[in-house]
């Protein structure tokens, strides 16, 4: 049975096979979580991001790329590029859904048994937290059963507001294929 966990913690200190980073299109570091990840992961991860930027021009919104996790407690980093919230009329919900689904696809592709997700786009990108949580949870729960390798997903919320939103949403879900664990 697949497992989905909700934990309030620092995602950069949580040990899993793959950590999802809320990245920007350049993959060269930005603000918020992306800044912290680049600072803590170190030069090896940064070199891979520079290479991806040079080879592919970065990563389009809604897509994801994989690098080493460097000094973080994981083997891989999955850089998922969420959308900036403009007004909800520029395909933002679909792009956020795509960012989560492509990150989960990449996790399965690299055979990550455990993967942690942050609240993508809710910080400096300004996506409304309630809507973002609904998209994140809906996307992951609908897609997780079809993947062979990913066994556990951790939603890691740093801020109280996001944690409470996720907790309220996950508490109301009864899925016979997925065990939901709230810490």
Automatic annotation (TrEMBL):
<protein>
    <submittedName>
        <fullName>RNase III inhibitor</fullName>
    </submittedName>
</protein>
<dbReference type="Pfam" id="PF01661">
    <property type="entry name" value="Macro"/>
</dbReference>
<dbReference type="InterPro" id="IPR002589">
    <property type="entry name" value="Macro_dom"/>
</dbReference>
<feature type="domain" description="Macro">
    <location>
        <begin position="1"/>
        <end position="174"/>
    </location>
</feature>
<dbReference type="InterPro" id="IPR043472">
    <property type="entry name" value="Macro_dom-like"/>
</dbReference>
């Amino acid at each position: 049975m697949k497992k989905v966990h909700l934990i309030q913690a620092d995602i950069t200190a949580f040990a899993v096979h793959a950590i999802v980073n809320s990245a920007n299109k350049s993959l060269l570091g930005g603000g918020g979580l992306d800044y912290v990840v680049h600072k803590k992961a170190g030069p090896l991860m940064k070199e891979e991001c520079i290479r991806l930027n040079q080879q592919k021009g970065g990563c389009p919104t809604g897509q994801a790329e994989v690098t080493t996790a460097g000094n973080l407690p994981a083997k891989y980093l999955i850089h998922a590029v969420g959308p900036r919230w403009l007004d909800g009329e520029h395909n933002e919900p679909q792009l956020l859904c795509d960012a989560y689904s492509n990150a989960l696809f990449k996790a399965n592709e690299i055979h990550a048994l455990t993967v942690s997700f942050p609240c993508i786009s809710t910080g400096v990108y300004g996506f409304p937290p309630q809507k973002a949580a609904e998209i994140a949870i809906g996307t992951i729960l609908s897609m997780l059963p079809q993947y062979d390798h990913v066994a556990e997903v951790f939603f890691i919320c740093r801020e109280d507001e996001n944690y409470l939103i996720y907790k309220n949403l996950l508490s109301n879900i009864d899925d016979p294929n997925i065990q939901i664990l709230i810490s």
